Amino acid sequence: MSTWLYQLNPTEWPPETFRYEIWERERWHWGYGQKRGNGLPTVGDTIVFFYAPSGGTDPGIYGWAVVERCDVKSQTLYFIPVTPTDHLKMDPWWNEQAKKVADEVRGPMKQATLFGMADESVAHIREGIRNWLHLAA
Length: 137
Hints:
By secondary structure, the chain is an alpha/beta fold. A seven-stranded mixed beta sheet has the order 2-6-5-4-1-7-3. Strand 5 and strand 6 form a beta hairpin.
């Protein structure tokens, strides 16, 4: 299984729209543009939703989802958001650790929609989300 960072564009789909439309356990599909990393998302992979600080006012990790399928022909991802997305969309994880891991995943070319993640980055994201939620409790 793989994990992918999906970078959302706040001018095309603002965080307020994400908060209103994305709910845990509801099926969704989005197109993806440029992809960085090897392979393609497959059933059971994880997608982490991320708003970068440039172009928006509320950056951070907004949640994650499980991939249902990836249609390569139409460049469309089908997914189901999962816990703790409903919490993170209201209180996105954004601190120095989140910025560091997002920069680590995106590398020097930060302009893309979908980024494949190394196992170490996935571990940092999981730990960061757990710590963020613990601080909120």
